[in-house]
Amino acid sequence: MARKQKSETDVVEWLRGLPKCELHLHLEGTIRPETLLELSARHDAEPLTAEGARKLYVYENFLGFLDSFKAVTQRLRGPDDYELITYNMVRDLAAQGVVHAEVYISFGIIYYWKKTEVEPYVEAIERGRVRAEREFGTTVFWLIDAVRHFGVEDAARVFRKAAELRGKYPSIVGIGIGGDEARGGAELFKELYREAAEAGLRLTAHAGESVGPESVWSAINIGGERLGHALTAQHDAELMDVLAERQIPLEINVTSNVRTGCCRSLDEHPVKRYFESGLMVTINSDDPPMFGSNLLEEYVLVQKQFEFTLEQMRELAANAVEASFLPPERKLALLEQVEQYG
Fold it and tell me: Which of 174, 178, 242, 259 sits at a 20 to 30 Å CA gap from 69?
């Protein structure tokens, strides 16, 4: 029997209930304007107005986005601020039907801008995670992100601290490199990635977001298990074949790519082409308030804009489970939930 045609509202609610994993999300990029106002009231001599806060989320291109990101995250002063945004992040994820998230934390920002040790901040983040997981049920793993344009020495400090803290906090599962690709090619971090893998950390890398497919090649060559963005892979047929053959998971961020200007329009985004070419596509939100779209809204956008069927959306959700760093038994349980849903 054919399934009943769903209304647009039904589709949104169906996608909300679909068990989803978020694999490309920056903790510092989850600060909503109302939370920014709370942080500003805590710390600024002249607290931001609602209009002033809103303006900080407006930018014209990728470098402008990095400046906006810095302006917002500068209001993160003490550990309690990190506990607040962690709790709020998990609460918001749960409301979207997200069952598990793997979230980047930028130790580099703490070291470089705050010039302090990360331990009190990690303790606070963990307090927020544990409290929110208990209340909302959504689980969280941490990926420790180095800002590539801060250089190799800073990245070494970040990754080694991640390896050290992993023993105390099993929720720390991996590393990554973000920031400006043009000022920090992945090949610079090859030895650090080898060292991190030997320490038991999983390897991700932002690649092919704002520069060409050579960045994606470099990320693969240093051992990246999962790649963030990979937008420019579409311009290299051999690379597309390698990504499909090896089933290297891609953390796709459609709205992010358009809002930063890395992709000129929604119509030009390669997400459907990647999917139809057999690449392992996952859908993610990156920095939701900065781009005006959370994970549920990304699923809704992708389904409507690129005419994915609901069964294909189910496949995208299953891809994210498979691409996660969850233990096998949890993956199997979630895959069963996805398969039986709806």
Answer: 174
**Each residue of 83-133: pLDDT tens digit?**
999 999 999 999 999 999 999 999 987 876 677 889 999 999 999 999 999
Choosing from 38, 209, 251, 298, the catalytic residue is 209
pLDDT in tens, 272-324: 999 999 999 999 999 999 999 999 999 999 999 999 999 999 999 999 999 99
- Burial class from Cβ neighbours inside 10 Å (0-12, 13-18, 19+) for residue 230 reads buried
In CATH, 20-336 is 3.20.20.140: yes
Answer yes or no: 339 catalytic.
no
Cβ-contact 12, 300 below 8 angstroms: yes
Residue 79 and residue 147: Cα distance in Å, rounded? 20
Model confidence, pTM: 0.94
Residue spans per domain, the chain: 20-336
Residue 16 has, within 13 A of its CA and on its CB side, a CA count of 10
> Rounded to 5 degrees, what are φ and ψ at 141?
-110, 155
Q: In what order do the strands lie in the sheet with 281-283?
A: 20-26, 98-106, 139-147, 172-178, 202-207, 226-229, 250-252, 281-283
